[in-house]
Amino acid sequence: MLLQELKLDDVFTKAHESNSAHSRFRSRELASMIKFKIVTPEREVFSDEVDSISLPTSQGEITVLPHHIPLVSNLVAGELVVRKGGEVHPMAISGGFVEVRKGNEITVLADTAERVQELDERRAEEARRRAEKLLTERRADDVDYAALASKIKKELTRLKVARKYAHLRGRTPSIKSEE
Fold first, then answer.
1. SS3 of 125, please?
2. Looking at the structure, do residues 112 and 131 belong to the same domain, yes or no?
């Protein structure tokens, strides 16, 4: 019986040592940072080492963590969220592309991208109203219709992000909606 207890203790000790080694390896692995950059035709919006990025792709929302497999995907209008050291950096984008490369490097080429601090809720609401008005007036031309529908989606995204993260902009969200 005593021999069995000793062997059992050895098994527990070895298992604990193995788990500790695995934990040290995982914590080192997870401590890696992602070199992230988001650019538009006009400017570089954000560039830093981050913990994760959540992106709106044409296939749905994805979150990229360190050591993600290489990937290229279309982006759609939506909320892009960068996380770094417990901080959240939300942005509104209107579409583009993302490239995830080996070596923890991610580049986003966005049609437009605005940090939440740059969003003007009133201006976005006015732009949405103007686009919807034009959309009802110009049903005949498919090109105009598609461009206006895209503009409405962009403005709705800006409104959603601005309202959701109003506390980061130092204001309370406005809940008023005309529908």
1. helix
2. no
148 closest CA partner among 137, 163, 158? 137
* 7 in a structural domain: no
Please tell me whether residue 115 adopts helix, strand or coil conformation.
strand
Average pLDDT, the chain: 77
CA distance 158 to 93: 8
73 vs 122 pLDDT, higher one: 73
43 inside domain:
yes
Number of domains in the chain: 2
Q: What is the pLDDT of residues 20-32, one digit of tens each?
A: 544 444 444 445 8
Strand stretches in the chain, DSSP E: 34-39, 44-50, 52-57, 60-64, 71-84, 87-101, 105-110, 113-115
For residues 121 and 174, the answer to whether their CB atoms sit within 8 Å is yes
Express as a percent the part of the chain with pLDDT over 90: 42
- pTM metric for this prediction: 0.64
pLDDT the model gives residue 37: 97
- Find the CATH number of the domain harbouring 153: 1.20.5
Q: Are 75 and 55 in contact (CB under 8 A)?
A: yes
User: Residue 138 belongs to what domain range?
Assistant: 119-168
